[in-house]
Design a protein that fits this description.
This protein has about 280 residues and is an alpha/beta fold. It folds into two domains: about 50 residues, no CATH class; about 190 residues, TIM Barrel (Alpha-Beta Barrel), CATH 3.20.20. Helices cover about 45% and strands about 15% of the residues. The chain contains eleven helices and ten strands. Strands 3, 4, 5, 8, 9 and 10 form a six-stranded parallel β-sheet that branches. The protein has a four-stranded mixed β-sheet with strand order 1-2-7-6. Bound molecules: zinc ion. Zinc ion binds next to loops.
């Protein structure tokens, strides 16, 4: 918490120390941050603002809680490890071609999932948003224009978050309390803006890397090797390869005894209506 407190109490002070701390943290966690950056395009420097990363077991299985300027911020990477359940998550849609195919496959297999939608895409494809809701899937907020929230001003962030939430609400009646930052990138300031709007930050513990490869085999292996009880699995409903990998992946996970849940079902948070 030391670093956060430094930001909170000395926002303009000790700049050299501040930069040095960021550089050290980047050096420590950059390889991990890179591995989890869903875009693969930048070193996610902003993740460095999370101080004193919890131990891997804590980070995997418990929401990370901290206070920033009086706002409680919670970040979740995975659900509880004591049940054979997993949560599939699909980011960046709705996509006019691939989202309907994903929805059909999920329905055929009787599998619920969580869709972190981009507001702009939801606005263009409102019927797909409604269809996902009707089919029993949960909906989350992934900003309006897939903005890197660490680079957005507080005003821009407010707009990105609230506009997307409003689109989801107007189309489906779901007042979502789920938020996933694009690229998995965040820092204390941006998270405080998110948490201030009563949103839970949901990341992932297993990256299918469907954004990085066209290989169906690689996508499946990325999940099959890393899946664990309580896993939150990152996928995207905007790629052909995801559609093609999904049926086999679902069969594999079922064969391993996993049951599928939505994010609101996965996390033991005492709230109603968050996510659908
Ligand atoms: Zn995304």
């Amino acid at each position: 918490m030391y670093y956060l407190e430094a930001i909170a109490h000395n926002p303009r002070g000790e700049r050299v120390v501040h930069i040095l701390a960021v550089l050290i943290l980047v050096a420590m966690i950059a390889p991990k941050a890179l591995a989890e950056d869903e875009s693969g395009s930048s070193p996610a420097v902003d993740v460095a603002s999370i101080p004193e990363m919890p131990s891997p077991s804590f980070r995997m299985y418990n929401p990370f809680r901290m206070f920033f300027r009086g706002v409680e911020v919670r970040i979740t990477w995975a659900g509880p490890p004591d049940k054979p359940i997993v949560a599939l998550t699909f980011d960046d849609g709705p996509h006019p071609v691939f989202t309907p195919q994903i929805l059909r496959i999920l329905e055929d297999h009787g599998v619920p999932a969580t869709f972190f939608v981009i507001g702009r895409n939801a606005e263009r494809n409102p019927e797909l948003l409604r269809l996902a809701k009707e089919k029993g899937h949960a909906l989350g907020n992934h900003t309006f224009s897939h903005t890197r929230i660490t680079a957005a001003t507080n005003g821009r962030l407010k707009e990105e978050i609230e506009r997307t939430r409003e689109i989801i609400f107007l189309e489906t009646g779901v007042y979502t309390q789920l938020f996933r930052p694009p690229f998995g990138a965040f820092d204390a300031r941006s998270l405080a803006e998110v948490a201030h709007r009563d949103l839970e930050v949901v990341l992932w513990s297993v990256d299918s890397r469907d954004w990085a490869t066209h290989s169906i085999g690689d996508i499946r292996r990325n999940v099959e090797k890393r899946v664990h009880p309580g896993a939150i699995i990152l996928m995207h409903d905007v790629h052909q390869q995801t559609v093609e990998a999904l049926p086999g992946l679902l069969e594999f996970l079922k064969g391993k005894g996993y049951t599928f849940v939505t994010i609101p079902e996965l996390l033991p948070i005492d709230r109603v209506a968050w996510g659908g």
